[in-house]
Amino acid sequence: MNEVKKPKKPLIYYYLIIMLALILFNSLVVPYFSQTKITDVDYGTFMTMTEKHNIGKVEIQENQILFTDKKETQVYRTGIVNDPDLIARLHESGAQFYGEIVEEMSPLLSILLYWVLPLMIFIGIGQMLSRKLMEKAGGSNSMMFNMGKSNAKVYVKSSDGIKFADVAGEDEAKESLSEIVDYLHDPSRYEEIGASMPKGILLVGPPGTGKTMLAKAVAGESNVPFFSMSGSEFVEMFVGMGASKVRDLFKQAKEKAPCIVFIDEIDAIGKKRDGAIGGNDEREQTLNQLLTEMDGFEGNNGVVILAATNRPESLDPALTRPGRFDRRVPVELPDLKGREEILKVHAKKINLEDNVDFSKVARMASGASGAELANIVNEAALRAVRDGRNAVTQADLEESIETVIAGYQKKNAILTDKEKRIVAYHEIGHALVAACQTDSAPVQKITIVPRTSGALGYTMQVEEGDHYMMSKEEIENKIATFTGGRAAEELVFGSVTTGAANDIEQATKLARAMITRYGMNEEFGMVAMETVTNQYLGGDTSLACSESTQSEIDKKVIALVKEQYEKASSILSENRHKLDELADFLYEKETITGEQFMEILHR
Ligand code: ADP
Ligand code: ZN
Q1: Which residue, of 34, 60, 368, 429, is most buried by count of CB atoms within 10 Å of its CB?
Q2: 554, 556, 561, 563 alpha-carbon torsion, rounded to 10°
Q3: Do residues 333 and 207 lie in contact, with contact meaning Cβ atoms separated by under 8 Å?
Q4: Which of 209, 311, 333 to probe ligand 1 with, by most ligand atoms within 8 A of CB?
Q5: Counting Cβ atoms within 10 Å, is residue 374 exposed (0-12), middle (13-18) or buried (19+)?
Q6: Quick check: 483 pLDDT over 90?
Q7: 427 a catalytic residue
Q8: pTM of the predicted model, to two decimals?
């Protein structure tokens, strides 16, 4: 058997517990049964009983006298007093002299009675308990007290549980997850065709955006059991436990398939292994076990693993490679419409006044997560109770935004009004430059709520289809688009922000590649100045040219980006009122789709 070593500590604890129990048993329970039969009395009582001829048996020992009453129902004990006539009087009273009234137990019998019997009882109870536990946990190996049992909770048929409808907003996440629901409903359809579901899906997003809720909803919608465990729970207490917990969890899951296994905070075990000295052995073992389990089952056995994290970049690449958690579902902070819906979902549970304007509350709580919104509603209800009212008012909700958001402000990037306006212009700047160059919808959707990535706005680019080649003009246009954000900021506000850092990096990379690798500079022609050394891991490049050429390249890169920046600036100032109109729309609604964008542009 290839079982991992069982932890030693629990066994020692087990023995300790038995010893303690035995000692308690012998010092408390045994005397109660064996010795209460003897009652201590004073010598006077003894004499009175003798005079009344009420003595049955008597035994005179060295330092005490044991005797019984006439009916021999009770054994008494009294001390020795100098009393020469005692024997004569006793004889006269008709007492019988005995050598041994209270029989001593034989040593063997007493050992049996005091030690072996209780021991057997305890072991018996222990085994019964552990068998029961094991049955409950789905049956497993037969250790006495299997403390390594996974405490994965089994949520039986979640038909009364959470459904997608309970998760407000998050339409994109729900859409990607509905495929899983479909699969769990009828795996055979997929098997027939030979398609296999992804084994692992990573829900990525800031805390409190409803990742756990979504996972539960998938189980609820597909009506399958829901196993859940938190990453930090794996790595607790005893060494070796994490790995055995993972094993147990998967064993249970496979028995109950189809089912959902949900691992919260997967970054607690899935952090990059950096090989640092004194690294966390326990965590690595657990991670390895998880990887082994995931590789060990085929894609179609009906176990779908969902994991949640808010730090996807810190995950070990081994965890995110194909065949493991290869699908990623972003669960982002809700936009205006999403916030309004979440507020409404939670407001159903409380008493509301009629004139509450949710859209106004949602607007004020820009950047709040689902959990924060739920908290806002609850705070408002508490406020109403404090004031002795029986319904929540608009003022309650508005007040509690401040209480809740102020509490979270340090942790979350909540945009101020000014920032929000700048971000709106920045994002529209990108999109407008792109649209004017190609005259087609450049984006599917732009949203201005802070994102997991740290970006303040988010632009969902239109899929360009299979696009293996790009012309020189296309690359130039792309660079212009990258600079469009900054150009808009400068044009409208006359100042610039740090928001363009990522744009700058991308634009520079492209411009550099044009010159050094794609042969798109007249002066250099088709000469490679740079080679890609590491195509599969990040695509690092190394320079292959003289130093003087290097400074030439740098100058050309700068000039190229500058040229495109100027192009972007002039596009934007030519279309200044469209820029304003679009940015206002985005600022107001926080979201703009590609169609809305083109509609306003062509109005
Ligand atoms: P996460 O797992 O992403 O940290 P949870 O799923 O635990 O977040 O959400 C915490 C709470 O926030 C939920 O119990 C729910 O009350 C509320 N919540 C979060 N997102 C939503 C949403 N989209 N719709 C409704 N309630 C939400
Ligand atoms: Zn930008």
Answers
A1: 429
A2: 150
A3: no
A4: 209
A5: buried
A6: yes
A7: yes
A8: 0.56
